[in-house]
């Protein structure tokens, strides 16, 4: 769908002056000069993120502003260096080193971040897991990765089937008792005893750093493997997409169990030497606005699901919070509905900048930049150094306005280097020579903006018309009664597929046939007759992943009575 709606570019505080110029002249190598490894050839992302700033005299700058309802802590870069060095020594004492997998299954606390950095510092590969994972999800990931150590808490330990995990030798308990004879160590005791004098393990750019498990629609979750070289993309996108500057206070709301919580909750801010806000505990609109206000957050990276929840909470909690420091807001994870973009402008006078990428791509590839006009509903344009295109299944590039496979020219620094122990799965992404196939469908408009349409397998074909579920969902959430919507194609003998919408209503609205009819008409008149859902079903809640994505494949499976596949990443 074409739009003429434009939101003007920002006029202050840019690292990137003109998108077109930067895109034309960009060289990845320029970014490398920021790092010590440009001179030495020796790499460690944790050194570049933390230690480098201490060496360059920025050690007393606040690195981590942590809070949850029970606890508030501040750490400088020097203190984060010291804590992560100590954790490196804890691992070394256990004999853990290069290439081994250390998994972290913890609530979001400072100890999670120290463990993560310390793991990298000994050259081991970190595997962060969502705190909410149940036993099956934990087992699958620890079995597949053959993790040798796990950092967790006594509360979460009941979900770790350690007797079934022969590779797992050491469990480090944060806030727990040691039982060293059986492989249990106390985090606090070990950290107290550890020296803060530490020699970092220098590795190669192509050595492993991180594994994120991500679910496909079928089969077990895949271990997406990233190497230290990815930091180049985290650094550059931090500069140009997040627009980070040295005095910023930055908050990425994502948990490190999701790739956004590592790439942009750890690397991008710290590689740029910027103060990073971490908020533990549960989501509530009041809490989030207060987190922005109390910390004086200037740059904020979140997700559509959160923005929609904030939108649903109305303006009252915003009035209670001083958001005057906020200057740059971004979103990732799902399509950002135009309605949400308009709300952002109205509610706190900020343009919300959409960005597109995937666990597999390791970093932002398409985005809206501060210096660029926003077309609400578009993901923006390719990052400098990235060539994106819409191609057909044979690899032919499609002209503007045609829907097809969103593909990226290989390689780029943060591209995954393996699917752990699954070569065949890895190769599927590269089945068209020279391209990475994302599995998303999209089109590009005449101005070079990309528009997300859905996952390839979500695109609906109704009476010969291809309809992206996102367009319909976006129109649906513009209706005042609709809080969230998930749209699927339901097989139909006449039309191939019909559009079915699952809708969660906002507080104060009652489900009724009249309301269904009203909503249907609303889409028909606002979008297109063929895009109006023929069927509507009201639900209390929609099935979502922990990163907030509506799980259309689960809606479809429910509808068709099919197996739902891997549900380990679904919210409770
Ligand atoms: C970072 C992350 C990747 C999938 C991706 C796409 C969807 C992400 C989006 C978006 C529309 C955006 N997605 N960003 N869809 N607009 N701006 O989300 O990684 O969890 O691996 O998900 O998320 O479908 O293919 P991951």
TrEMBL record:
Top-level taxon in the UniProt lineage: Bacteria
InterPro entries: AMP-bd_C, AMP-bd_C_sf, AMP-binding_CS, AMP-dep_synth/lig_dom, ANL_N_sf
Coiled-coil annotated spans: none
Keywords: Acetylation, ATP-binding, Ligase, Nucleotide-binding
All copies of domain AMP-dependent synthetase/ligase, residue ranges: 57-417
Domain named AMP-binding enzyme C-terminal: residues: 471-549
EC annotation from Swiss-Prot or TrEMBL: 6.2.1.1
Enzyme class name: ligase
Record PROSITE patterns: AMP_BINDING
Keyword Cell membrane: no
Keyword field contains Ligase: yes
Gene Ontology, cellular component aspect: cytosol
GO MF annotations, alphabetized: acetate-CoA ligase activity; ATP binding
Listed GO biological process terms: acetyl-CoA biosynthetic process
Pfam families: AMP-binding, AMP-binding_C
Entry's family note: Belongs to the ATP-dependent AMP-binding enzyme family.
Protein's recorded name: acetate--CoA ligase
Annotated source species: Marininema halotolerans
